[in-house]
Every structure is written in C-alpha cells, then in structure tokens.
Amino acid sequence: MTAPGAPEAAGGLAGPGGPARPVILTVDDDPGVSRAVARDLRRKYGERHRIVRAESGDAALDALRQIKLRGEQVAVLLADYRMPEMNGIEFLEQAMDIYPGARRALLTAYADTGAAIDAINVVDLDYYLLKPWDPPEEKLYPVVDSLLESWLSADHRPVEELKVVGHRWSARSSEVREFLARNQVPYRWYPSDEAEGKRLLDAAETDGMTLPVVITPDGEPLVGPSDAELAGRVGLATTPSGPAGLGAAVYGASEGLRTVLVERTATGGQAGQSSRIENYLGFPDGVSGAQLTDRARRQATKFGAELLTTREVTGLEVHGPARIVRFSDGTAIHAHAVILATGVAYRQLAAPGCNDLTGTGVFYGSALTEATGCTGHDVYIVGGANSAGQAAVYLSRTARSVTILVRGPSLRKSMSHYLVEQIEKIPSITVRTCTEIAEAHGDGHLERLTLRDRNTGGTEVVDAQWLFVFIGAAPLTGWLDGVVHRDERGFVLTGPDLAAGSERVAGWSLDRAPYHLETSVPGIFVAGDVRAESAKRVASAVGEGAMAVMLVHRYLERA
Ligand SMILES: Cc1cc2nc3c(=O)[nH]c(=O)nc-3n(C[C@H](O)[C@H](O)[C@H](O)COP(=O)(O)OP(=O)(O)OC[C@H]3O[C@@H](n4cnc5c(N)ncnc54)[C@H](O)[C@@H]3O)c2cc1C
Questions:
Q1: Cα 310 from Cα 227, distance rounded (Å)
Q2: Could you tell which of 265, 481, 538 is best to mutate to test the pocket of ligand 1, judged by most ligand atoms within 8 Å of the CB?
Q3: pLDDT for position 11
Q4: Atom of ligand 1 minimally distant from the CA of 240
C-alpha cells in the first residue's frame, strides 16, 4: 500500500547486479485513473520496463530524483494535464531538467486539447493522448511504442558511462566534448589535473601526454581518438547534417528516392550550434538547433534515408549520367543526382595569437559546450549578428560578465531587433562598439586580449580566458573547383544566377535552362547556405532541401 500521492513502483526494483529496466512514469491525481494507466502499461511493458506511478506532480518529481540518484534511466513520462497544485505541463517542464532525454506525453480531456497543443512548444511534447484511452491496443500502446522507439534510437545508447579525461585548455579535448555533445552522447568530464581524472589516466595506463582519453562504457581507453574512431566506438551510425541536407533527406526518402545523406563531422550543421532558434515556423517559444535537427534525423531515418557520418566529400565527378561523390577515405558513391548542402564554415579572426589559441580559450561557435567552463568568468564575444547575440544571452546565464565586441557603431544594423532588446535587458552583458581585437595573448591558453578602438586607434589590454568568435562564415567549396560554377566568394551559382547577363551558361549542353536550384552541371543541385544569394536561415535551408528534391524528380523524369 502506498500513501496517497506517494510514488509506487510497479513491477519491482532492479535486483542487485542486474541492469535496471528503463522506467515509464505515469502521474495522475485521480487514484483510479492512475492505477488503470499503470495496469495497462504494466500489461504490455512490465517485462522490459519498470512502471512507476504517482498521484501528484511533486510526488512524481521526487520519484524521478530518486531514480536519477540510483543512476537508472527514464524512457517515457506520461502526465495527466489537469492536476491540482501542479498541472501536467508544469510537471513535464520540471521533469525535463532531471531527464531531458525522456519522451513526454500528456493525457488530456477533449476540452484541454488547446493546452496540449501549446505544450508541444513549452515542454517539447512528443504526443498528447485523449481520455479515455480504451482500448489501449488502439489508443495507448501505439503512442507508447513510438515514444519508446524514439527514446531507444536517440538516448538509449550503451554509452551512459562514457568518460572523457582531458585538459581544460587542450584544443582536442574541447573538440571531442563538442563532438559528443552535438551528437547527444552523454559523457562525464574529468579534468586530467584533478584526482579522479588522474586516477582514470592511471587505470588506463596512459601518461596523460596525449589528451583526451575517452573511456568506453566497457572500460576500453581510446587515447586521442579521431572523430571517426569515436563515432564507431559509441555507435553513432545516425548523426544528422545541416537543415538543408536533412530537409532534402526527409523529402527525398519520403518521396521514394533512394537517399544517402553524407555528413563530415558533427550534428545539425550550424543550426546544431544555435542555442535557441526563435524564427522557425511553428515554434513560437523557440527550439534549440540540436532538438530540431535531432527530430529531423529521426524523421529522415524513419523514411528510410541512409545517413553516413564522419565522411568528408572531397570530390564530385561527372561520367555520363553518373554523378560520382568521392570521400576522403578513397571510397565513392555513384548517384543519378546530387544535392550539395554543405553550408558554410566559420571565418577565422586574423589578429595575431588567435590562431594558436583556437580551442584553448578562443572558440568558434562552440559557446554551448563551453558554457559550464565559463561559470563565474568574464567572457568576450566578437561579432554583431544574431549568432553572437544568441551566444551572449546564453552565456550570460553562467558567466560573471559578457562583453560583446562589435566593429560597427551599433548592434542594430546587424542583429535582429528582438535580440537587441533582450540583450539590453540583461545587466551582465556589455556591448563595446567600434572595437576590434588587436591581439590575443596566452601561454598554452588565452590569458589576455588587446582591444583596439577603431575610432581613436587607442588600445587596452584586458584579462580574458574566454573568447567566442562569430564573425560570419565562408563556404568551403574549393573541392568543387572546375566542377560547378561558383561566385567570387565560393558560393555555388544556380538557376537564373548562372546566366548573369549572358544568354547561355558556359558549358551547359541541354536545350532547357538550368532549374532554379540546379548548378552549371545538370543533375547537381544546391540547397541552403552554400548556394549563392541564399537567405542564410534555417527555414529557407529546409525549404530549399525540399524544393531541390522536387527538381531532382523533374530532372530524373526527363533525363
Ligand atoms: C550560432 C548560430 C545561430 C543561428 N541562429 C539562427 C536562427 O536563430 N534562425 C535562423 O533561421 N538561422 C540561424 N542560423 C543560421 C542557420 O543555422 C543556417 O542558415 C542553416 O544552418 C543553414 O543550413 P545548411 O544545411 O545550408 O548548412 P549548415 O547548417 O552549415 O550544414 C552544412 C553541413 O554540411 C557538412 N559539410 C560541409 N562540407 C562537407 C563535406 N565536404 N563533406 C561532408 N559534409 C560536409 C557540415 O559539416 C554541416 O553539417 C544560425 C547560425 C549559427 C551558426
């Protein structure tokens, strides 16, 4: 018997030594309903999952904390919407802090569906279920099946105990953490100069000269692993690319094309680095880039797209109707059509010292993974566009102060109005206009910056351990030299932009003009930021990915 409101574990606790079954937690203030949901869940999932039920949001949160302390996993949270004191949305919001990876569903009465729809954005709700859920075979189980499936594919990888031992100021340690974080691989970080880190290095029988050392869940140390090695060892077969590539993969696969999405390094492209995208359609409360692209990855996989990760494309060749995509490891794929969605890469700061200190205090776009390291420190951000603004807002939550350095006289020309307003309201953020970095100094890691006033030429040296740079980006399209036409900055020209004044596109042999997103080579298309004159926004990248697929269909029909 359990006290009213106290959580009750159905199906028993894990026995000593055996791995705990991932939890499905249900919370409903009506004891009858609560018992009935738990009974139905237990009937189908009791063997593989521990069903925990609670009769109030507070009791459910207590249960989650205990489960967390025991190091167990929570797969699904199923909350009633109408509960006194704490409603289902409020509960799920707090539960997200404890178990961000758990899938979330709300149980609602018909009259509350409006609230449930709102919750899709507030707590990133996966589903809402209408009461009554009878028969469970039709209404409850398909939903829970799908929640479990997506939880298993995204979070239930055998890597909970992955350990990364590294040095705060080792560039490669930083890269590896960012790689894992962007791929949503949970890991624990152990500084190599602290007791536990030293102990792990000893146990791994390494001298700590090559860092980081990544210790797999089954205890195997990987000394200074490459991204490809890491991906292989932690079972990352399914990491996504940028929004344009993902958009094309989802539409390509769902429209019946055999689709392969190739990604060089991390997840989500640039969007994966955005702490909060607020202008993407359908997400009025914003969505993190990692969340958005992870959902897209699941969608692409669901439709049957094949995702190849840590594979860099280094060549594209045209042999009759074949378009051959070559990889850096010497392998290749033959395709009928190719969509280039390679986006852009960060432009580097030219000031002396910055190059040497990259990854050891000077970071390009990696504000998210480094945020905890910045706690209580003074942070500098270079750049005046939205990415710099978002990073400033994000880092201001943990840093002692954030200083945005802008070359121009104001942020207003380059940054969205809503972000400028947010920044003005955060007291710990200072904006220094007409200021640039003259030099970065440090022995092994960033220690000081020389700032130059662009009006007076006067300089000032400030102590600084953290510098995040967001000064725009350039396409890395050198490998397309001699294959497709590009503009003077390297962006790939398509459709009407190819002719630019002349009647015919040089080298174009067909009796039709290139389609809107088609390059100077028939059957090679472009979507997203790498396209000349593109909008440089997530929504337009996704849209172009979808549109490129439609044009591929048209091309294949007439080829
Ligand atoms: C910090 C930040 C915040 C942003 N915030 C917003 C926002 O709030 N709203 C908004 O609309 N836009 C925002 N943007 C812009 C938005 O992210 C981009 O417009 C969008 O990501 C472009 O998508 P893409 O797929 O064209 O390119 P990318 O996102 O750049 O993706 C390209 C992908 O291709 C891969 N790749 C490149 N070359 C190769 C190769 N040779 N072989 C294999 N793979 C390769 C890259 O690794 C990358 O994953 C932001 C950008 C940044 C950096």
A1: 7
A2: 538
A3: 36
A4: 49
pLDDT single digits (tens) 388-425: 999 999 899 889 999 999 999 999 988 999 999 999 99
Instruction: Name the residue at shortest CA distance from atom 27 of ligand 1.
Output: 343
Q: How far is the CA of 64 from the centre of ligand 1 (A)?
A: 36
CA 220 to chain centre: 27
Length of the chain (residues): 559
CA 180 – ligand 1 centroid, Å:
18
pLDDT of residue 213: 93
Residues in the chain where the model's pLDDT stays below 50: 1-6, 10-18, 155, 157-159, 237-239
Model pLDDT, residue 323: 96
**Nearest CA residue ID for atom 36, ligand 1:** 342
Say how far apart CA 525 and CA 5 lie, in whole Å: 58
CA distances, 550 to each of 15, 250, 537 (Å): 54, 12, 20
Q: The tokens of 228 are what?
A: 């490809």
Tell me 464's DSSP state. Answer: -
Which residues lie closer than 8 Å to 164 by C-beta, 6 or more apart? 173, 176, 177, 180, 187, 188, 189, 190, 212, 213, 214, 215
Closest CA to 534 of 182, 286, 242: 242
Question: By the 8 A CB rule, do 431 and 404 touch?
Answer: yes
Contact of 393 with 288, CB cutoff 8 Å: no
Sign, CA torsion 38/39/45/47: positive
Q: Whose CA is nearest to atom 38 of ligand 1?
A: 342
Ligand 1 centre and the CA of 241: distance in Å?
8
Q: How far does Cα 157 stand from its chain's mean position?
A: 17
Q: How far is the CA of 155 from the centre of ligand 1 (A)?
A: 23
Question: Which residue carries 């602290």 as its tokens?
Answer: 194
Which atom of ligand 1 is nearest to 346's Cα? 53
Q: Where are the alpha helices (DSSP H) in 375-510?
A: 386-395, 417-424, 495-499
pLDDT at 70: 65
Q: Can you tell me the distance from the alpha carbon of 409 to that of 392, in angstroms, rounded to the nearest whole number?
A: 18
User: How far apart (Å, rounded) are the C-alpha atoms in residues 184 and 267?
Assistant: 9
Q: Residues near 285 by Cβ (< 8 Å), separated by ≥ 6?
A: 121, 122
Q: Which two tokens stand for residue 360?
A: 């050891």
Going by C-beta distance under 8 Å and a sequence separation of 6 or more, which residues neighbour residue 182? 266, 267, 268, 272, 273, 290, 369
Q: How far is the CA of 390 from the centre of ligand 1 (A)?
A: 15
Lining residues, ligand 1, CB within 6 Å = 241-245, 262-265, 269-271, 273-274, 277-279, 312-313, 341-344, 365, 386-387, 390, 476, 528-529, 536-539, 541
